[in-house]
Design brief:
The structure holds 2 protein chains of 2 kinds. Chain A is mainly beta. Chain A has no helices and 11 strands. Helix content of chain A is 0%, strand content 57%. Chain B is built from no helices and 11 strands. Chain B starts with a strand and ends with a strand. The chains are: A mainly beta, B mainly beta.
Chain lengths: 112, 109
């Protein structure tokens, strides 16, 4: 299995809702990432987990809460989002530092 | 400052013509450079990395440390090459990949 899988593919949520995005990889990678991508823009790093520990938080608002239950799974918990948070959220993984990154197809999030 | 510059937002070429997507970087250390591609309705995926020095789908990229460039080239463009291309830099010892703004390649029939 050489893919990163993400669910759901599409999510519409209200500003008072709580939802979660899920990600799974079975490539044995020890680093997992959350990126946010707006239309026609490069991905922006949000969080990095290395060996299941949070390694990087790019000053992301607390309404986004990451979780890494084990080396294969990564979640992003969403609460009280704003309409400007609507974007494509990409999960990714890599073998380690300076390694190539493998992306999932993303979850399209719309906040209404 | 660490930076990746892709000067062209859009590049349009005819099928069969050579194509070069430019990438310049700013980094004082030893760079680890990549090209990623995003085809329409597909995931962002690795195209090639400079350390492997391989050709993928007919594309090559050579690291020029003197000019701090990592341009992507293909001698004969195909319609299926139409996509968004991102040049990316991995600094030493970190997980934070720095992406360029991207170049949209459009190959006309």
């Amino acid at each position: 299995d050489t893919e990163v899988t993400q669910t759901p593919k599409h999510l519409v949520m209200g500003m008072t809702n709580k939802k979660s995005l899920k990600c799974e990889q079975h490539m044995g990678h020890r680093a997992m990432y959350w990126y946010k991508q707006k239309a026609k823009k490069p991905p922006e790093l949000m969080f990095v987990y290395s060996y299941e520990k949070l390694s990087i938080n790019e000053s992301v608002p607390s309404r986004f809460s990451p979780e890494c239950p084990n080396s294969s799974l990564l979640n992003l918990h969403l609460h009280a989002l704003q309409p400007e948070d609507s974007a494509l959220y990409l999960c990714a993984s890599s073998q380690g530092v300076r390694a190539a990154i493998y992306f999932g197809e993303g979850s399209w999030l719309t906040v209404v | 400052a660490q930076r990746v510059t892709q000067p062209e937002k859009l590049l349009s070429v005819f099928k069969g013509a050579p194509v070069e997507l430019k990438c310049n970087y700013s980094y004082s250390g030893s760079p680890e450079l990549f090209w990623y591609v995003q085809y329409s309705r597909q995931r962002l995926q690795l195209l090639l990395r400079h350390i492997s020095r391989e050709s993928i789908k007919g594309f090559t990229a050579d690291l020029n440390k003197g000019e701090t460039s990592f341009h992507l080239k293909k001698p004969f463009a195909q319609e299926e090459d139409s996509a968004m291309y991102y040049c990316a830099l991995n600094p030493t010892g970190g997980f934070k990949t720095i992406f360029g703004a991207g170049t949209r390649l459009f190959v006309k029939a």
